[in-house]
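step=encode ok
step=design start
structure_in=
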């Protein structure tokens, strides 16, 4: 069967070239070769020239690869790309050097007990998830969802900003559930992948198979739900899938970057289903949690010596999320290993200066409202009030303008934070303030002063 799958790779590759464009395909996917297909797990393994390229392809094109393969071979359940032995000389030299493994697990992963565990990352387990006040509700709820006993709350909705551990918990749930239920059908996919497969099934006239596969899941885990916002047909299918799973007593876990009520463009019935179980928020990591995570990672690399003042530097400057913190640590250790440099505070300050600048916490709408009210000596409740007197309306417009300038929030999201105003009101406020900044130097100076206060 592996030979049959190998014969399909040229057709898969040609379809990817059409979808992604010749330049992108030639740069990343042209060197990829077929390696293996496991009929037991349904996983296709591809090989490319280096570990770096493999990681990049898995991250950027993993969903597209899987969809392309499934269109040619419906039994495929996953696709993984690995760095092959034909790496270039530089990659081979690095692999041969005594460089520490920054992704090393705390203990050697045990072999998969059943086929359901294949394709999951053994490093993303509950044992490696560091628990603190900011994430304890989500962590405990995730453990309950993976137990043999039926969970008290279903579905489980995990929400947080990027890099806070949502995907880690999804993987941990899937692996523990697979151990407790060896014959279970577990599906873990991103919401974007759900959407791509849904569209592919519609175009290919294969909707029945798509529906049957999802509804056969004993545990369905959907990551990054915010990516189906505004996709009405996808939302409708997701709603029917959730209803069928809930009716059958199956388990559902969903993650997103915001609570259900803040998902603009999502159909009300779908929001109701998602809110019907437990919504568990993961907050920004506190100092203690960030330090414990660094110490845990370093414990897996006993050959690396990192002074306490460097750990303190990382904890102080990388506060936004865990992914940035770990990325900064990896960058520092990689530089030291490749150059033979001792890890010290001077090296950290030099090599991580740019990372520190980009890791500064993002400004929130609430902070903007507070800063504007402080400047104009208003009560914060005026930001949501219906009063239209100039002394209130103009600061409110300034706050809306700054919210659009300094945050990634959409016009509807901003309007909701200002007393449920329509998006057209926010657009009008932004355009009004833009024009006034040109004509009114005093207002322009006031806005500049508020911006300075927000940036510390």
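sequence_out=
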């Amino acid at each position: 069967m592996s030979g049959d799958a190998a014969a399909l790779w040229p057709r898969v590759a040609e379809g990817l070239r059409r979808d992604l464009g010749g330049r992108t395909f030639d740069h990343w996917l042209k060197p990829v070769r077929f390696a293996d297909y496991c009929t037991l797990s349904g996983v296709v393994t591809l090989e490319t020239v280096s570990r770096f390229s493999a990681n990049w392809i898995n991250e950027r094109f993993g969903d597209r690869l899987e969809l392309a393969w499934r269109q040619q071979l419906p039994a495929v359940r996953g696709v993984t790309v690995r760095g092959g032995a034909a790496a270039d000389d530089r990659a081979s030299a690095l692999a041969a050097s005594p460089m520490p493994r920054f992704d090393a697990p705390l203990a050697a992963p045990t072999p998969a007990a059943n086929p359901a565990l294949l394709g999951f990352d053994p490093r993303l387990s509950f044992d490696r998830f560091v628990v603190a006040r900011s994430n304890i509700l989500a962590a405990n709820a995730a453990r309950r969802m993976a137990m043999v006993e039926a969970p008290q709350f279903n579905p489980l909705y995990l929400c947080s900003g990027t890099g806070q551990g949502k995907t880690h918990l999804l993987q941990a749930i899937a692996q523990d559930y697979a151990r407790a239920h060896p014959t279970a059908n577990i599906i873990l996919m991103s919401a974007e992948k759900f959407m791509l497969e849904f569209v592919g099934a519609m175009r290919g006239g294969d909707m029945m198979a798509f529906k049957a596969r999802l509804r056969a899941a004993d545990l369905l885990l959907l990551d990054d739900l915010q990516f189906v916002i505004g996709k009405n047909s996808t939302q409708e299918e997701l709603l029917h899938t959730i209803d069928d799973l809930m009716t059958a007593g199956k388990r559902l876990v969903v993650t997103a970057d915001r609570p259900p009520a803040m998902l603009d463009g999502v159909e009300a019935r779908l929001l109701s289903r998602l809110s019907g179980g437990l919504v568990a928020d993961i907050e920004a990591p506190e100092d203690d949690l960030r330090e414990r995570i660094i110490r845990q990672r370093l414990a897996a690399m006993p050959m690396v010596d990192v002074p306490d003042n460097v750990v303190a530097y990382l904890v102080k400057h990388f506060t936004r999320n865990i992914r940035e913190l770990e990325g900064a640590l990896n960058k520092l250790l990689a530089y030291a290993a490749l150059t033979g440099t001792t890890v010290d505070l001077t090296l950290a300050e030099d090599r991580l200066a740019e990372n520190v600048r980009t890791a500064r916490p993002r400004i929130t709408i609430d902070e903007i409202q507070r800063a504007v009210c402080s400047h104009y000596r208003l009560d914060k409740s005026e930001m949501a009030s219906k009063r239209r007197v100039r002394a209130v309306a103009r600061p409110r417009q300034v706050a809306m303008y700054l919210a659009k300038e300094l945050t990634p929030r959409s016009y509807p999201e901003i309007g909701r934070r200002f007393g449920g105003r329509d998006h057209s009101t926010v657009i009008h406020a932004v355009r009004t303030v833009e024009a006034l900044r040109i004509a009114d130097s005093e207002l322009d100076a006031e806005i500049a002063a508020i911006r300075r206060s927000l940036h510390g």
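step=design ok
step=annotate ok -> The first strand starts at residue 33 and ends at 38.
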